[in-house]
Design a protein that fits this description.
This protein is 26% helix and 30% strand. The protein is an alpha+beta fold. The protein has two domains: 14-77, Winged helix-like DNA-binding domain superfamily/Winged helix DNA-binding domain (Arc Repressor Mutant, subunit A), CATH 1.10.10.10; 95-235, Chorismate lyase-like (Chorismate lyase), CATH 3.40.1410.10. The strands form three sheets. The protein has a six-stranded antiparallel beta sheet. It has a two-stranded antiparallel ribbon with strand order 1-2. The chain has a two-stranded parallel sheet with strand order 3-10. A hairpin with a 6-residue loop joins strand 5 (133-143) and strand 6. The protein is globular. This is GntR family transcriptional regulator. One of its GO terms (molecular function) is DNA binding.
């Protein structure tokens, strides 16, 4: 893994990259629920980093609820519940492209763009100065003939070439970025079930007991620097997340 860690200026912190890698191992089932993960010193050797860096990566996963520590025993994997299968829309690539392949016409019901100062989390993941300027794009999306079943909150590093007119973001974001020769080469994602917060209830018109699937998508360019971080929320009984390896 160490040869994949991006150490260039502007790349995400090493601990964040390691947390990403560990997160995908957890979500892919490499370690079963209740299983002890490798000790910190072994992870130091695997990633060729300091123990402090490993500890920060593990701390992040503990806060997210993927791992837990037991004194004098080690760090273990928390169990994850899986819901039963139903008919859903399927995600294999970008949202717009996948819906079109299913014969569905994608609709963006609302789009709102604003220039903001990045939070600590967004700053770290995008590899920018803490509080640096980022473009925040909030969109509700669905398919023709239905109400919105997806809500995206996207952050990208801001440059003056990006429009601040919300009407420019009703189409595919990736097609928009291509206009500026921004080529995205690799993405990392993880999914989790979350509660429908009051904000999500209002935006997606669901009740507080409606299951919500949260997908966090981190997309990088060929130099390993993240160019997009998206928090995506889907109505759980209308969408299936699918990955083909």
């Amino acid at each position: 893994m160490n040869d994949k860690l991006a150490k260039k200026k502007g790349s995400s912190p090493l601990y964040s990259q390691i947390a990403d890698d560990l997160r995908f191992k957890l979500l892919s089932g490499e370690w079963a629920a209740g299983e002890k993960i490798p000790p910190e010193l072994e992870l130091c050797t695997i990633y060729n980093v300091s123990r402090i860096t490993i500890r920060k990566a593990i701390d992040e996963l503990v806060r997210e609820g993927h791992l837990y520590r037991e004194r004098a025993k080690g760090t273990f994997v928390l169990s994850v519940d899986h819901t039963t299968e139903k008919e859903h829309y399927t995600m294999v690539r970008g949202f717009t492209r996948e819906m079109e392949e299913l014969g569905k016409t994608v609709r963006t019901l609302t789009a709102h763009v604003q220039l903001i100062h990045a939070s600590e989390r967004i700053s770290q993941q995008l590899g920018i100065e803490n509080g640096g300027e980022v473009l925040q794009i909030r969109r509700t999306r669905g398919v023709e003939g239905s109400k919105a079943f997806a809500y995206f909150v996207t952050h990208i590093p801001y440059t003056e070439k990006f429009s601040l007119d919300s009407s420019d973001y009703y189409g595919s974001l990736y097609e928009y970025l291509k206009k500026f020769n921004i080529v995205l080469s690799e993405s990392k994602e993880y999914v989790e079930a979350v509660m429908a917060t009051p904000e999500l209830q209002a935006i997606l018109e669901v009740s507080d007991v409606t299951p919500i699937l949260k997908r966090v998508r981190m997309v990088s360019s060929s130099d390993g620097q993240y160019k997009e971080i998206s928090d995506c929320y889907y109505v759980g009984d209308q969408y299936r997340y699918y990955v083909e390896m």
